[in-house]
Structures are given as C-alpha cells and as structure tokens.
Write a structure and sequence with these properties.
This protein is an alpha/beta fold. It contains eleven helices and ten strands.
C-alpha cells in the first residue's frame, strides 16, 4: 500500500467500525475485564440506580441493609496485541484474508481500549519479533497502530509464537490484557503462554478460513505452503481425501481449544467469510457475566 492508500484504509476502518466500538465500550468492554482492570476500593450503602451485581452480600447480611462494592481503575492498564504476520495470513478464499481480518478486529479492540483510556501496544512477529509498538494512550496512537498493521511488510514468512511471547514476557511488569491474533498454526508456545496467563488476561483470537476446513471437489489441485514454500498435489475429487482433510482440521481446532483452556486462556474463533461483530459482542457479554459470578 502507498501512504495515501494506508491513510484512506485507516479512515475507512475507523468509520465502518465506529458503531461496533461504541457498543463494546458502552456495554461490555470495561466490565468484561473488571477482574483485571480495576481494584476494590470500599463499600457504600446502596443507592437507587446502582447495579445490583455490585452488591456485597456479606456486608449486606451483616449490617441489615444493602451495600455495594466500589472499584478504582488501575492506573495505566495496558492492552497488548501480539499479531501474527507470517505468510499464512495472506490466505483468504472469501471476503478478506486472515491478515485483513486480524487487522480489522485488532483495530476495533484498540479503538475500544482507547475510549476506555487504556494504554495500547503491539508486537508483530513471524519466526522472530519484527516490530514493537510501545504502549501509549490516545486516539492518535491507536490510528498509528492501525496504520502500522496495514502497511507492515514482514521480512520473514515462518511462525514462532513461543519466541514472540517469550520476548514479550520480561517487559510486562504490570498486569495486562493480551490479545494474541493468529491462526495458531504453530508449536512450542504452550509453556510460555501458560506462564503469561497466570499473571495476565490472555485472549486468543484464532483467524480461520473455510477452505482450511473443507476442500471443494475440484479434482487434482496443487497446494502451496507460503511459510515453508512446499508444493503438494492432492486429488480433491476423492471423497476420502476431503473427509481426511476436514477431520484433521477439526482435530486441530479441538486441540487448540483444549490447549488454551488448560492454560486459562480464552479463545475466540473468527472466520474470514463471516461478520466478526456479533462474535465479538457475544464474547464480551460472556466475559462480563463470568466476571460477576
């Protein structure tokens, strides 16, 4: 993209996602991460209009009238995006590529974080960390992040998520929200991901394309792996081949769900051919309900 094209695309994303950003901030964002982003301050007597979910039932029972918990925002809460820039992100058979989907979703979440006055930073990685944007506040900083996501041209094609997380880990001195934006077609990241999730709120945003899960019956086709540059010919007209491919994809998804769940990491799967608005809102609403249990 030329600088002018990047600027136009940044503006397009900001305008087209405005309502979604507003909805996330208005109803779900801050409360979805309440357990990570605020600290308990005191209790006070219930007043009409207070959210009943903030009632402290122990104090209420002890004193005989309703009391609610009050919270203070933690200073300089950081939201970090760990973004996979490997060559597999260039694949897309529908509306957008996986990389384009990741950029738009990261943009929505970053704009929501900015409206919540959080600090936003990012790490772009392939099989090494290629770029790092230090955390800062403000709309201008978020627009820079979106511009960087759009204009970035990786030098490498492979994937090493574990290396990226390991390099990020020592710099996180305060609890942070970490969004890992990737197709998760990687290995060797599980241990460091588990360590990070014990100290931080980690969310995996898995980017998928339907053609990675279901082959069309198109006869003999030649497939190319952009990360390894390996070629392979397969007969998609064979129902057994298509069934095997679908079965492998299903096993991968279930394995990823299990891996992240065992390490206390939330997973949100987003598809290139579908709208990401409703899945995002559903995710935040579910997180909000969990925080209030």
């Amino acid at each position: 993209m030329t600088p002018d094209e990047v600027a136009r695309e940044v503006r397009r994303i900001e305008i087209t996602t405005r309502h979604l950003v507003r909805d996330i901030v208005a109803g779900e964002y801050s409360s979805a991460f309440r357990g990570r982003g605020v600290e308990f301050a005191e209790v006070r007597e219930y007043q009409p209009g207070d959210d009943i979910r903030t009632i402290d039932w122990n104090v209420t029972a002890r004193l005989g009238s309703a009391y609610v918990k009050r919270y203070l925002e933690e200073r300089e809460l950081s939201v970090l995006f760990v973004v996979d820039m490997s060559a597999s992100g260039g694949f897309g058979s529908r509306v957008r590529t996986k990389g384009e989907l990741g950029t738009e979703v990261a943009a929505v979440l970053a704009l929501a974080a900015a409206r919540n006055n959080d600090r936003i930073g990012a790490v772009f990685f392939t099989d090494r960390v290629e770029y790092r944007l230090h955390a800062a506040k403000g709309r201008r900083h978020v627009l820079r992040l979106i511009s960087d996501l759009l204009a970035f041209e990786p030098k490498r094609s492979g994937t090493d998520l574990g290396l990226a997380l390991a390099e990020l880990e020592p710099s996180l001195r305060r609890r942070a929200i970490i969004f890992v934006v990737s197709d998760f077609m990687a290995t060797g990241y599980e241990t460091v991901l588990g360590r990070l999730s014990r100290r931080h709120d980690v969310v995996g945003l898995q980017l998928v394309d339907p053609r990675e899960r279901q082959l069309p019956a198109a006869g003999i086709v030649t497939l190319w792996d952009p990360e390894t540059e390996a070629w392979r010919r397969i007969d998609t007209g064979d129902a057994r081949v298509r069934a095997y491919f679908a079965r492998q994809a299903g096993e991968f998804d279930r394995g990823l769900e299990r891996t992240l769940r065992e390490r206390g990491v939330d997973l949100l799967r987003l598809e290139t051919g579908e709208s990401y608005a409703e899945p995002l809102l559903t995710f935040f609403r579910r997180r909000e309900r969990m925080q209030w249990r």
